[in-house]
């Protein structure tokens, strides 16, 4: 890719960070899924323009996955088949778009995220981010995805804060302090 495409790609990475930040501020799961999908679309453009094709393909599958997760949630279902199917699809696409040895990191991180997104317990999702975000961050570092690195670092720190807050709230409740 040319230098102009690379610079435009990095700008899209910044836009994806903004969308990702907004996604964590919305009130409903449906809005979260929509904003996460918008974030993934912008990351697709980002990865395409910087030549990180495995990251682009994984995010494209995430857009479709999010649609199916939204439908599944609307119907009140919580099956293991949807995340398993998308994990297998992502594995196949990860292999087909493999563009460097470090593609393994985004592959493992995104497939792990797909499985973990199916957890009902938000605390388990937060804990899973402690593993999946560093994997995707590593891919982003090798792919020179500055937006991706910032996004994953913020997600990682945010999940730690969420875990600590939930544990603190649990201790207060256990002690009878409901303030």
Q: Could you please describe the fold and organization of this structure?
A:
With 179 residues, this protein is mainly alpha-helical. The mean pLDDT is 85. The chain is built from seven helices and no strands. The relative contact order is 0.12.
What descriptive keywords fit this protein?
179 residues, mainly alpha, 7 helices, 0% strand, globular
Furnish the topology, listing elements before pairings.
Elements: H1 3-23, H2 29-50, H3 53-74, H4 81-96, H5 103-116, H6 122-143, H7 146-174
Helix pairs in contact: 1-2, 1-7, 2-3, 3-4, 3-5, 4-5, 5-6, 6-7
Unreliable segments of 5+ consecutive residues: none
Largest sheet: none
Number of strands: 0
The gross shape turns out to be: globular
The termini sit apart by 55 Å
Tell me the fraction of residues in β-strands, as a range: under 5%
- Helices, by number, come to 7
Estimate the helix proportion, in percent: over 70%
The run of helices and strands is HHHHHHH
Radius of gyration: 17 Å
| Estimated structural class | mainly alpha
Average residue pLDDT:
85
């Amino acid at each position: 890719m040319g230098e102009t495409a690379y610079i435009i790609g990095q700008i899209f990475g910044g836009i994806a960070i903004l969308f990702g930040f907004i996604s964590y501020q919305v009130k409903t799961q449906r809005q979260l899924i929509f904003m996460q999908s918008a974030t993934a679309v912008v990351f697709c453009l980002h990865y395409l323009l910087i030549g990180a094709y495995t990251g682009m393909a994984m995010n494209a599958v995430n857009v479709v996955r999010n649609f199916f997760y939204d439908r599944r949630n609307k119907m009140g279902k919580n099956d293991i088949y949807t995340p398993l199917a998308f994990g297998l699809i992502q594995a196949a696409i990860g292999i087909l778009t493999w563009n460097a040895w470090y593609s393994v990191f985004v592959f493992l991180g995104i497939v792990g995220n797909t499985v973990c997104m199916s957890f009902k317990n938000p605390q388990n999702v937060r804990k899973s981010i402690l593993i999946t975000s560093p994997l995707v961050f590593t891919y982003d570092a090798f792919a020179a995805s500055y937006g991706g690195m910032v996004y994953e670092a913020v997600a990682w720190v945010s999940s730690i804060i969420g875990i600590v807050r939930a544990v603190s709230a649990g201790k207060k409740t256990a002690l009878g302090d409901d303030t």
